[in-house]
Amino acid sequence: MRDTKPKQVDPERWAHIRAFVTDSVALTLPQSQRTARLYTSTAAIYVAWVVFERGYPLKASIVWRRDVIDEWVQEGAPHLTVVTRRNYRTSLSRIAEAVAVDSSGMEFTRIPKENTAFPYSRAEMLVFRDWATGQTTPLKVRRGMLMLILCAGAGLTSSEVALVRPEDVHVSSAGILVDVRGRNPRAVPLLAEWDAWMLALLGQKPPAGKPLWGELRTKNKSRILSTFTMGTVGNAPRGDRLRNTWLIALMNARAPMREVFQAAGVRKLENLGVILDFATPVPPDEYLAALRGVVSR
Predict the structure, then answer these.
(1) Whole-angstrom distance, CA of residue 129 vs CA of residue 126
(2) Cα(137)–Cα(156) distance, rounded to whole angstroms?
(3) Every domain of the chain and the residues it spans
(4) How many CB atoms lie within 10 A of CB 292?
(5) What letter does residue 48 receive in the DSSP assignment?
(6) Own/partner pairs for 123-130, CB < 8 Å, 24+ apart?
(7) How many Å is the Cα radius of gyration of the chain?
């Protein structure tokens, strides 16, 4: 079990917390049918966040408290799916019980049935720019930048991000166009605010014929973003929320809805009513003309 090296945790951080994590998991195994590797991976992600992101001491009496576990589930793992968050919380709770940390009477915060993919605000997006450029390795910086560019700048899904190659990105005086591969092939103009970052990545001369994302170690491309963000430092964005941030940018720009749906690769938008709440309202002095069809584009 001590030979386990969780891919989602920085090696230097893992070296610091490894003994603590493996000792905690060792106490749990007789009480559970789950494998040591799964428990170790889950615990490593959690403990790394508790110690390095929250700054709590590496003490069992603190790390394995239910309120700290709850804090991570609510604040440190919003990018994970509801099912994953629940599974992780169950595993961490079992470890806490095995370590015999008394948190009796403390109830977990309810996890909603669905993760509502609210768009990010302008202020949040500025923070995510710093998040991307502040990662610990050049590969993570490039992937963080690419995630923002393609999701917030072109509305791509996780599986689509994984397929984009250098030759799919077309640069001209009119702007940048991204050819999207996959089940919904299409061409999507990149929002102008992301041009500089895309040009910077292309300037690194990525190999033609290979994904800009780099080598893919999993066949499930729909999870590459969540898998990536689990191993980053700082509070990471969610791909679906970045995509809806892109949608709001187009709506605020009064882009034609037919073309918006075409660029998104969908026939209908889930939770459209919720997303529209984040769009900038038409000014009162333009409202009448806008709905009379007399506003020129």
Answers:
(1) 5
(2) 24
(3) 11-99, 122-276
(4) 8
(5) H
(6) 124/237, 125/152, 125/245, 127/235, 128/152, 128/237
(7) 22
Nearest to 60 by CA among 52, 70, 45, 50: 50
Question: In the numeric block, which tokens belong to residue 141?
Answer: 């910086």
Query: What are 242-266's pLDDT values in tens digits?
Result: 999 999 999 999 898 889 989 999 8
Q: How confident is the model at residue 112 (pLDDT cuts 50, 70, 90)?
A: low
Helix (H) / strand (E) containing 264: helix 257-264
pLDDT, one tens digit per residue, over 33-72 is 557 888 898 999 999 999 998 899 999 999 999 889 988 8
Residues counted in the chain:
297
E strand or H helix that includes residue 283? none
Instruction: Enumerate residues 6+ apart whose C-beta is below 8 A from 225.
Output: 79, 147, 151, 158, 161, 238, 239
- At residue 118, what are phi and psi to the nearest 5 degrees? -65, 140
Strand order in the sheet with 175-180: 169-172, 175-180, 186-189
**The predicted structure's pLDDT at residue 295:** 53
Q: Which CATH superfamily hosts domain 122-276?
A: Intergrase catalytic core (1.10.443.10)
The residue behind tokens 């804090």 is: 71
| Average pLDDT for the chain | 86
Contacts 24+ apart (CB under 8 A), 196-199: 197/145, 197/148, 197/149, 197/153, 198/149, 198/153, 198/169, 199/171
Rounded CA-CA distance 9/230 in Å is 8
Q: Which of 63-72, 89-98, 108-117, 182-191 has the lowest mean pLDDT?
A: 108-117
Residue 240 pairs in a beta bridge with none
Indicate whether 85 pLDDT > 80: yes
